[in-house]
Amino acid sequence: MDLNERIKKETAAILDEIIAIRRHIHAHPELSFEEYETSKFVSKKLTEWDITHKTGIVKTGIVGLIKPTDGAEKCIALRADLDALPITEVNTIDYKSTNEGVMHACGHDVHTSMLLGAAKILNGLRDTITVAVKLIFQPGEEKLPGGASLMIADGVLENPTVSEIYALHVFPELEVGKVGLRGGMYMASCDEIRMTVKGKGGHGAMPHQNIDPILISAHLITSLQQIVSRNCPPQIPCVLSFGRIEGLGATNVIPDEVKLEGTFRTMDEKWRKTAHQNIKSQSVMLVKSMGGEIDVDIQVGYPYLENDPELTIVAHKKAVRLLGEDNVVDLPLRLTGEDFAYFSQKIPATFIRIGVRNEAEGIIHPVHNKQFNIDEKAIEVGIQTLLAQVLDR
């Protein structure tokens, strides 16, 4: 039997079981670094399938290992994330979240299920695989400092040493049945900015007696955009956005302070450091010139994600052989962030997008949306794509 036909046959045989697993995980989401029940559920499945694994890695993480019957000199890793988001789901589905205010709105339930499906099949094919496969079920992708960085520090890429790593991520912009890849730079570094602008509050009808932190903040946000538009080299993708402003005054009350929160993202580490310095110095000078004071806190987050060019070319070829050329697309750069980037900074890595969109069925909502869902045919494609990375070598 042709290898790709075997991959499809093996996947079809367990698909209903894996979809049920996905629905269970979706209905019981847990926040970052609190994935205790999810971890127990994953461990239970691995135990049922007689897959060697360790639990309690960074509290809720799991690392499994599948070794070929004849042994192997090389080890590759497949990674999935476990955590959900603080979002209240509004979908009308049988497997809607049962944890109020928590939802798998980024598809990590899907990623975990696809990795479990691939693991079950690979464990049954130990006599045919030629590499050891490390299964990484990672906590806390959605929250700094990122579970990937903590698992790496805990030695997840050692014993045995991992030589390359792959991960999948749902992509609602892409039609179900398709996958997307991009070699080289793909996703941005991701830093969190928090500022407190301090003024002097008072009556809104007598601004000359006050130092208005709301007015200062308005000037500050506008001014800081010049760091991107006037200082960032044009060849470097970069964005600075503020998503939260809190000034607890009233229609006629100027508050004492305003709190700002935003994000800075780019794809160049030298410029990243320079921009941080510019944000701090420009903020201090502008606010001081208007009579106020400011506290600036920039929390350095995930690095940029770079797909190994050679590894990605090979993965692209495997996907074409598996799914057909029309179902494999080249992805554009994105300024979103992912803590899989930590793995990509350590060893050759490839981050593959799995299409989940089905407009005819109304499955069109983006990740981090209260109506996000997937066409579950994507689970079959995802399992097959992971299997191809291991079996088609």
Structure report:
By secondary structure, the chain is of the alpha/beta class. The chain has two domains: 3-187 and 304-391, Zn peptidases (Aminopeptidase), CATH 3.40.630.10; 189-302, 2-Layer Sandwich (Alpha-Beta Plaits), CATH 3.30.70.360. It contains nine helices and 16 strands. Helix 1 (3-27) packs across helix 3, helix 1 (3-27) crosses helix 9 and helix 7 (309-323) crosses helix 9 (377-391). The protein is elongated and about 80 Å long.
The secondary structure category is alpha/beta
The stretches of 5 or more residues where confidence is low (pLDDT under 50) are none
Helix content: 25-40%
What is the count of DSSP helices, taking H or I runs of 4+ residues?
9
Q: Could you report the average pLDDT, rounded to the nearest whole number? A: 97
Number of strands: 16
Residue share in β-strands: 25-35%
CATH topology of the largest domain: Aminopeptidase
Order of helices and strands: HHEEEHEHEEEEEHEEEHEEHEHEH
**Rg of Cα set:** 23 Å
At CATH level 2, the architecture of the largest domain is 3-Layer(aba) Sandwich
Across the major sheet, the strand order is 1-2-4-3-5-16-6-15
Q: Please outline the major beta sheet.
A: 8 strands, mixed
**Which CATH top level class of the largest domain fits?**
Alpha Beta
At the fourth CATH level, what is the homologous superfamily of the largest domain?
Zn peptidases
